[in-house]
User: What shape does this take?
Amino acid sequence: MKSLHLPALLAATVLGGLSAQAQVEIKISGSTAFRAATYNSIVALYGANLTTQTPAGPQSGAGKVTFVGTIPTLYGIQSVTIKTAYSGSVEGVINLLNAPNPAGITQPTYLNADGTTDANTSADFALCDVFQDTTDYNSGSGYANLDDVSVGIVAFAWTKGTMGGTTGISNLTHQQASALLGAGSVPLSILTGNAADAASTVYLAGRNKVSGTRIVAQSDTGYGANADSSLYKLAGNTPTIDSVGFSSGSSLAAVLNTSTATGPFVAYLGISDSNSVNGGNNRLTFNGVPFSFENVRNGAYSFWSYEHIFARPGLSNTKLTLLKGISKPGNPIASNGLAKAIDTNLATSTTSVQVSTMKVVRNSDGGPITGL
Assistant: This one.
């Protein structure tokens, strides 16, 4: 057996130590719906060991944030960089599967710790408001099944605008919502039940085809998750046909907050955006049931979906540790990784529900709700 000389042995030891402390870099993309919960949970994982955040300061609503530090409970003394850049649920699935981007869709870029742009847009994880099977990028279309961890419940609400003509609208049924999705506009009397409103029209504003919010809305009404729907937007104060749909819930909410619009609007929104329309007072009941955490938990209110975190196929165990933890990786919500941190963060959320508190389940978007 050949012995190592001392210099060679020392070099091997140093290299081994550097390898053991190699930096871990993880990129997270996908839905904007859970970016605040994800931001708060990442900060909680780092704790006092977060050394750099770009941009600095509280950034729970930012589209791009990069974190550098250590997460001793998961990675010991290794330096861990987490880069987040959100665009949308389906974009995240497309990214993980290396699928072709639809026309007009580009993947988000990330920030380096010094504020420069990271040119590599490939994500390791993607947040998504819907099951992979609900998207067009599923195994039936020849794509790999993504590793899936449900980390929370995203609730949505049909919401009316602040413009004149919406006073009599208080509830929406599956059938009325489906009619709106198909036609883009319906006589106001269909939503108010007042024959005197037959001469007026109510318009639907909505999201683009790669929006998780749109997919959930169309799934839950039975209209068809990925079907084309008819939408309107404002040209000044006048409703006009929208062939694309809005790219964010905040811009959609802005339409509903335009009190000077010449026609009344209804739209589907996440709870946070719904709260921004007249302080949440313009939220409609759905099939006669108001949104509340308890109505979501017990299955009475159906307009909700799971927030999923999907992992890139073949992702290393080192990176999977961030999501699933090391204490109970087979049950991430009960482990010590990001899934558990998000569930803990949602205990104080005013817009989303902890998956660990649900009393019902569903196995598909818009599918039957059954007891646990």
